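Issue 218. Parser rejects a valid record. Input:
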Amino acid sequence: MEKGKSIIFTVSNDLSYDQRMQRHSKILVNAGFDVLLIGRKKTKSIPIKQEIFRQKRLNCWFQKGKLFYLEYNFRLFIFLLFAKADIYVAIDLDTLIPNTLVAKIKGKKLIFDSHEYFTEVPELIGRNASKKIWEYVAKTFIPKVDKAYTVGPKLAELFEELYHKPFACILNVGLYEKQIRFEPKEVEPIIFYQGALNEGRGLEQLIGAMKNLDAKLWIAGEGDLSKFLRTFTIDNNLSEKVKFLGFVEPSELKKLTNQAWLGCNILEPKGLSYQYSLANKFFDYMHSGVPQICANFLEYEAINRKFEIAVLSDCETQNLVQTITNLLVDKGLYQRLKENCLKASEVYNLQIESKKLIDIYKGL
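Output the parser choked on:
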């Protein structure tokens, strides 16, 4: 594919905090493509930061639920119908329908990038009608795409079996850099969580564990549980130990991670999406040389067998206390995990993954 081909990426969330899509957009612009990243505008969205790729936010009256998805898909369809592109890219199932319709109408190429096992997210547990709708969308529209990829090898295998479509794997990793670690400025060690404050992330249990830990907890992100978790922290007299940082831009996360003693990536076994996950925070901690306490799920276990960079744990509060206390005491174990992070980052990095990403788009 020659230089100058245009790509439109579409996400259903606020594009300012989508680290994966910002990385991919920059990679493809540097490879000669013209990239437009489309997301939605939220009530608390920050101003769009100037980037080397183009950006667009769509305004919606509704902010969540079925009405939001209906409105956003309609607005997205209208926008894409009049936008010029050679390649349309749907990020997850909730943008796949308008992209498919427009790509077929215009005779253009269509790519599907699945960030998660959408039909098995915790939010759909017990909501059978909604789940069936998304399963129908997946089975109907995924086979129609020209190319597809996802965030982990196990998920790629699963999708290939379900939808009879080849799926590549593009890991959600950062650039490899020689590690320059900043010493924590706090007297107490800092446990750091980055990501959405949503159901199933073990955040209530983690905050509860702080009662019995000689450490501080920094939480970067917002979500459905934002208000509840802040209230829970106050009610348990943990405001001195737990610090909520709110939304943090991807460019600032690295600085915060570099100050951490321990990263946190625990998950409850709610829905297969979590059990097949391979989150960007897992690699972000790795690349900063920060050991982590991590969910004992398929992908994390597989990487941890190759490079022991994490201590695997469930979300039970007492188990979290015991595991983190052990790391505080066992300096040898902590140092080994830290050194392995640096070794693993030489294998799992954006320099390697970017070549795979560019090959996908140049291969169309």
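Fixed in the parser; the record now loads. The CA atoms of residues 173 and 349 lie 5 Å apart.
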